[in-house]
Write a structure and sequence with these properties.
By secondary structure, this protein is α/β, with parallel strands linked by helices. Helix 4 packs across helix 5, helix 5 crosses helix 6 and helix 7 packs across helix 8. About 50% of the residues are buried. About 40% of the residues lie in helices and about 20% in strands. It has one domain: TIM Barrel. Strand 3, helix 3 and strand 4 form a beta-alpha-beta unit. The protein is globular, with a radius of gyration of 17 Å. It has a seven-stranded parallel beta barrel, surrounded by six helices. It has a two-stranded antiparallel sheet with strand order 7-8. The longest helix has 21 residues. The protein has eight helices and ten strands.
Length: about 260
């Protein structure tokens, strides 16, 4: 049997008259999409259009939840009381689930965005708050969490199905965290470099840091950031390259633990 891997992208991040990314093209390539729920990006019309495109392409959808930071695109850390953050996450999941139901679809996973994701990767208490919200909403939702993160640890503690993801276009530190975006080596540039980065990590079963350190991991999904200028080219290269390496591009549910 072929090895299976999910290919995901963060989509639905346009807002009003402002357009972000190439969602229609990416939804013809990826197998799952994490859809912005209005707090860092997206609006009701964008959400609904994104869901419809996902349905037409047979792509699974999840809630891409974030801090309430529309102006900062969810990339600024916010100090929120646990009950306030839990309520904000519930609010976003409920919004997307309602839209999905109207389109005859079901939300299948949850993935934090930006600063919330980064913070939950390193802070176990914060990660537990995220997982409490997910558990309260629907314990069958898959938690899509960065590999080797505290978020993945908290998800397993909470009894949630967890799939760990690798980032095709981001570099890693020696502790498994992402290189901060303010560093010049934070990004992996270009489709060929991204494919080489991912194939190396999957072949070795490890995150490979900027210094060459290997951190063993079992990953079920690879993420392409939809706001990247080369996202479509990278996603196409990843799909073709991973299939050539013997991987079947599969829905997220087929790649869960």
């Amino acid at each position: 049997m072929k090895m299976r891997i999910d290919l995901n992208a963060d989509l639905g991040e346009s807002f009003g008259a402002w357009t972000m990314g190439s969602d229609a093209e990416l939804l013809g390539i990826v197998s799952s999409a994490s859809v912005a729920c209005g707090f860092h990006a997206g609006d009701p019309l964008v959400m609904r259009r994104t869901l419809r495109l996902a349905r037409e392409n047979g792509v699974g959808v999840g809630a891409h939840v974030a801090y309430p930071d529309l102006q900062g695109f969810g990339r600024r850390r916010m100090e929120m009381a646990p009950d306030e953050l839990e309520a904000a996450i519930l609010y976003q999941m409920g919004a997307l689930a309602g839209m999905a139901a109207a389109e005859g679809m079901r939300v299948g996973h949850v993935k934090p965005h930006g600063a919330l994701n980064n913070a939950a990767c390193a802070d176990l208490d914060l990660a537990r708050t995220v997982c409490r919200a997910v558990s309260a909403f629907d314990r069958s939702l898959i938690l899509l969490a960065p590999a080797l993160s505290q978020l993945a640890v908290a998800g397993r503690e909470a009894g949630l199905p967890v799939v760990e993801e690798l980032f095709a276009d981001r570099a890693y530190l020696d502790d498994g965290q992402l290189v901060p975006r303010n560093r010049p080596d934070a990004m992996i540039h270009g489709a060929a470099a991204s494919l080489a980065h991912v194939r190396c990590m999957l072949a070795e079963g490890a995150i490979v840091s900027v210094s060459g350190k290997r951190l063993p991991v079992t990953a079920g999904s690879v993420c392409v950031h939809g706001d990247s200028a080369s996202a479509v080219e990278t996603a196409r290269a990843l799909r073709a390259g991973l299939q050539a390496a013997g991987y079947a591009i599969a829905p997220l549910a087929a790649c869960r633990e």
